[in-house]
């Protein structure tokens, strides 16, 4: 393997060659996206204090750690299932098998979004919407941004499932799946940060 | 639904009273009349352009050859055209502001609000829609040619970047016709730009034009960086790249890392204004210092993003017009990298007075002064390149000379301002305005103008008129000096920046001198327009189609002018730094080959224009609260993007026969032409083929 992001191999021919530039470009994009999340984290940290909370609810009042833990487990599992899909592609185990594991990943992604939406609705219900305080604005800026990324990832999976069916496993489909994989694992990584910095640190403070 | 509801649903908060033309009719005071006239000019200009294109019957060719093109060279030219149009508006605004301040002792002729609008649009336009597109345009055209590539890594994304930049520019122009632009300066600090103090559409125009164009720039940065890393010709190692490409690499790294803070800051401000968030509000735990930090976390790297490519251009120009290899290439590379890294460590010097501890200020002050070191290295390297060189004072060299003298003054005042204690004395005065114009105009603008004159024959096949170029360059240099050097003095005398008027008569003479300078700059721009007009008219006399009018040193000169879509008939095998100079010296330039192959190039696509149109509608819809249109535009963008991924037939193949025929025809013209010496470089005889004049070093190596 010439590039750590490429798990195709020489026998994938054109797809392997294309991947060099395409995957590298996507890494660079992720780096830029990571800066956005990094800044959102920084803003959150500067606002998670009594001044930022402005007399409104704090982390302990609004976070449901059980639900967040379930979301974490779902998302981590989805990374595993995506990994299995990638391996199925690398070892050319057939379109059906790849589609199966992508489908499982999609279901887990939607499950994560469902739990997250329920938590958001609960927070609005208890008067902890973004308008209440700077702290809550920072929360609502960061966590739903990750949710938005996951939603985009889910749409991307659906598009890829359609393209796998229409075009078959042609080179461009393979390199797109590689990039989707990077994106999906990247979101997992961001979630680990959110789970640690927003939820665990918030509850323990 | 009543008819009133229907109108609100259809047009949001846009109504007759938001049109400046209508306001000028209602209350014809001077300020309103100027705003109304500006709106009329925009409308008349748009109609004139449409009429002109129709008259030329050029709609089809505009669409197929330009707007839908994925060719990096055409995209580059379109960036430059966009920038020059916007520069005209920016300069006119500058002259208006200078006129207002020259008349400031008696109150001036503009209302303070109109004046605030002028400095806000002027700053926003000059940075985001003049300097950035010019930089992006020159990079787009030149960088792939210099590294021996056929195109960018992602040609369609390149087109989308252009589309998003154009969207931002169109939004700013629309603000002249519909409603008003922000009065919150180009930095748009909240809480002033928040909903509580500024409920109108102005700050929303700023937010969406800057946010959308900023996303385009981030994508450009990714594209440039990947192209440099992955598309270099065989043998083109990083340390054989022309210095311009190194500066582009550093600039694209800055784009990738420094544009996200701007995106975050603008979108947070939007969340505050649209969704009742409290990121930067006065109440409920908002923290406006977060905005200031985010903005300058972008804003400082931004100025290096702009000036580094200008340094790159100057390196190329100085080496070519001195007929020498660049002195201290490696030190220039390291200096460029050092500036790129340091640019992320100094953002706090933009707000020394905003409440940090003295120790924090000192740390950032020292970091800011450190930037002078690599910059100094560069200036000495350029001077050493010129030393005992074969110097020709062509137009690019006149700009570079202006750069040397004036930019060094600007840099030195920067070192002065890097001292927090001095900043406390002069902050928010015209001293600061003088300083940053003094680095941006002689640095960025002169650099880019030098580059445009230098590479124009490459892009169009004919040289720009030398005489008018000299007139324009001298007017720029003297205009700048008269317009901004007096501002240092009034700044030290205590005149605050952004004041529509003043009451100290001592400022008056200097303000008049500055107005004179602004008039010179306006004439410089007029001379530039005349120069382009005269050059197009005399294009047959000025033709240099053979490709090498300046005895160039780098790969872009090894192609015909203008280069074919695929750039190089056969990808060059790079053996040296300044490979074309070495190739000419060793006799391997202009070689024919037997191995022409088919070349696969990207097809045209309308995607960039579709996204541009939808993003423009999205921006307008958001500014005016037309929610149905906003949703429709977002949907269009998503559908267009996804639909594009279903198109597999995105390339076409140029057969080897055609390539060899074109290439051999050009080679035949080169062999038939008579090469000219450097003395006759600016004469009509310069067809773009140079007599070999060996510099000492190459003589020695042979």
Residue windows where pLDDT falls under 50 for at least 5 positions of chain B: none
Q: Helical proportion of chain B?
A: 55-70%
Sheet of most strands of chain B? 2 strands, antiparallel
Shape of chain B: globular
Helix fraction bin of chain A: over 70%
End-to-end separation of chain A: 45 Å
Our count of domains of chain B comes out at: 1
- Overall body shape of chain A: elongated
How many helical elements of chain A?
A: 7
Estimate what percentage of residues of chain B fall within beta strands.
under 5%
CATH class category label of the domain at 65-204 in chain A: Mainly Alpha
Largest interface: A-B, 39 and 39 residues
Name of the level-1 CATH class of chain B:
Mainly Alpha
Structural class of chain B: mainly alpha
Our estimate of the beta-strand percent of chain A is under 5%
Radius of gyration of chain B: 26 Å
Walk me through this protein's architecture.
- The complex is a heterodimer of chains A (205) and B (702).
- Chain A has a domain of 140 residues: Cytochrome c oxidase, subunit III, four-helix bundle (Four Helix Bundle (Hemerythrin (Met), subunit A)).
- Chain A contains 7 helices and no strands.
- By secondary structure, chain A is mainly α.
- In chain A, 81% of the residues lie in helices and 0% in strands.
- The model of chain A has no long low-confidence stretch (mean pLDDT 93).
- Chain A is elongated, with a radius of gyration of 19 Å.
- Chain B is 67% helix and 1% strand.
- Chain B has a two-stranded antiparallel sheet with strand order 1-2.
What is the topological layout?
The complex is a heterodimer of chains A (205) and B (702).
Chain A: H1 14-47, H2 50-53, H3 59-62, H4 65-90, H5 95-125, H6 134-167, H7 171-204
Helix pairs in contact in A: 1-6, 1-7, 4-5, 4-7, 5-6, 6-7
Chain B: H1 3-11, H2 20-26, H3 30-56, H4 59-67, H5 72-102, H6 112-146, H7 155-177, H8 202-230, H9 243-275, H10 288-322, H11 329-342, H12 358-370, H13 372-386, H14 395-417, H15 420-426, H16 430-460, H17 466-493, H18 508-537, H19 579-586, E1 599-602, H20 607-624, H21 627-645, E2 651-654, H22 656-672, H23 696-701
Antiparallel strand pairs in B: 1-2
């Amino acid at each position: 393997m010439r590039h750590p992001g490429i798990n195709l191999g020489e026998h994938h021919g054109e797809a392997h060659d294309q991947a060099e530039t395409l995957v590298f470009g996507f890494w660079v994009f992720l780096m830029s996206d990571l800066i956005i999340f990094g800044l959102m984290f920084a803003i959150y940290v500067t606002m998670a204090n009594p001044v930022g909370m402005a007399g409104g609810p704090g982390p302990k009042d609004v976070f449901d750690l059980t639900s967040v833990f379930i979301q974490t487990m779902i998302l981590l599992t989805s990374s595993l299932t995506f990994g299995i899909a990638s391996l199925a592609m690398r070892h050319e185990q057939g379109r059906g098998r790849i589609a199966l594991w992508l489908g499982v990943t999609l279901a887990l992604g939607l499950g994560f979004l469902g739990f997250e939406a329920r938590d958001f609705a609960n927070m609005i219900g208890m008067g902890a919407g973004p308008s209440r305080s700077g702290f809550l604005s920072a929360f609502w800026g960061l966590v739903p941004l990750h949710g938005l990324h996951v939603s985009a990832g889910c749409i991307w999976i659906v598009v890829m499932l359609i393209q796998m069916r229409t075009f078959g496993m042609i080179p461009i489909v393979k390199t797109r799946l590689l990039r989707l994989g990077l994106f999906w694992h990247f979101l997992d990584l961001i979630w680990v940060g959110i789970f640690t910095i927003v939820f665990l640190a918030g509850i323990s403070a | 639904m009543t008819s009133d509801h229907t109108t609100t649903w259809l047009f949001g908060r846009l109504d007759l009273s938001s049109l400046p033309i209508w306001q000028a009719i209602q209350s014809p005071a001077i300020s309103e009349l100027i705003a109304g006239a500006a709106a009329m000019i925009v409308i008349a200009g748009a109609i004139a352009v449409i009429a002109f294109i129709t008259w030329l019957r050029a709609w089809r060719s505009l669409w197929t050859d330009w707007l839908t093109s994925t060719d990096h060279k055409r995209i580059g030219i379109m960036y430059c055209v966009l920038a020059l149009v916007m520069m005209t508006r920016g300069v006119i605004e500058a002259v208006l502001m200078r006129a207002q301040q020259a008349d400031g002792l008696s109150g001036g002729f503009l209302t303070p609000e109109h004046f605030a609008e002028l400095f806000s649009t002027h700053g926003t336009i000059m940075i985001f829609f003049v300097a950035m597109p010019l930089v992006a345009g020159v990079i787009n055209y030149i960088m792939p040619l210099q590294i021996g590539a056929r195109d960018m890594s992602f040609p369609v994304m390149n087109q989308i970047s252009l589309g998003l930049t154009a969207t931002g520019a169109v939004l700013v122009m629309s603000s002249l016709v519909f409603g008003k632009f922000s009065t919150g300066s180009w930095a748009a600090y909240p809480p002033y730009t928040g909903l509580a103090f500024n409920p109108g559409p102005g700050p929303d125009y700023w937010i969406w034009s800057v946010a959308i164009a900023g996303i385009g720039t981030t994508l450009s940065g990714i594209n440039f960086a990947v192209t440099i890393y992955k598309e270099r010709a065989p043998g083109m190692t990083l340390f054989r790249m022309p210095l311009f490409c190194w500066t582009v690499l550093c600039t694209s790294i800055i784009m990738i890392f420094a544009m996200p803070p701007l995106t975050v800051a603008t979108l947070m401000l939007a969340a505050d204004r649209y969704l009742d968030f409290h990121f930067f509000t006065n109440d409920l735990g908002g923290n406006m210092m977060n905005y200031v930090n985010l903005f300058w976390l972008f804003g400082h790297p931004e100025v290096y993003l702009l000036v580094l490519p200008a340094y790159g251009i100057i390196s190329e120009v100085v080496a070519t017009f001195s007929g020498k290899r660049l002195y201290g290439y490696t030190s220039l590379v390291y200096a460029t990298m050092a500036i790129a890294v340091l640019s992320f460590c100094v953002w706090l010097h933009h707000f020394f007075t905003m409440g940090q501890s003295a120790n924090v200020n000192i740390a950032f002050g020292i970091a800011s002064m450190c930037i002078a070191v690599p910059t100094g290295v560069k200036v000495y390297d350029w001077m050493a390149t010129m030393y005992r060189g074969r110097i020709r004072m062509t137009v690019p060299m006149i700009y570079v000379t202006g750069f040397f003298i004036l930019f060094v003054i600007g840099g030195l005042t920067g070192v002065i301002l890097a001292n927090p204690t001095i900043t406390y004395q002069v902050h928010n005065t015209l001293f600061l305005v003088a300083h940053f114009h003094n680095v941006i105009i002689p640095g960025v603008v002169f650099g880019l103008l030098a580059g445009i004159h230098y590479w124009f024959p490459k892009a169009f096949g004919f040289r720009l008129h030398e005489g008018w170029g000299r007139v324009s360059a001298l007017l720029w240099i003297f205009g700048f000096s008269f317009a901004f050097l007096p501002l240092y003095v009034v700044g030290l005398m205590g005149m605050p920046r952004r004041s529509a008027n003043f009451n100290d008569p001592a400022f008056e003479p200097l303000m008049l001198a500055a107005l004179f300078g602004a008039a010179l700059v306006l004439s410089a721009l007029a001379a530039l327009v005349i120069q382009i007009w005269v050059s197009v008219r005399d294009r047959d006399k000025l033709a240099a189609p053979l490709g090498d009018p300046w005895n160039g040193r780098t790969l872009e000169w090894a192609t015909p002018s203008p280069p074919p879509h695929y750039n190089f008939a056969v990808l060059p095998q790079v053996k040296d730094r300044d490979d074309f100079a070495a190739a000419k010296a060793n006799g391997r330039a202009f070689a024919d080959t037997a191995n022409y192959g088919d070349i696969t190039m990207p097809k045209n696509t309308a995607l960039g224009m579709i996204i541009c149109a939808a993003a423009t509608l999205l921006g307008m819809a958001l500014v005016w609260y037309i929610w149905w249109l906003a949703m429709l535009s977002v949907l269009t963008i998503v559908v267009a993007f996804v639909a594009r991924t279903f198109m597999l037939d995105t390339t076409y193949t140029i057969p080897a026969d055609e390539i060899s025929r074109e290439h051999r025809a050009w080679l035949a013209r080169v062999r038939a032409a008579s090469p000219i010496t450097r003395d006759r470089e600016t004469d009509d005889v310069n067809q773009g083929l140079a007599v070999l004049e060996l510099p000492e070093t190459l003589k020695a190596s042979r």
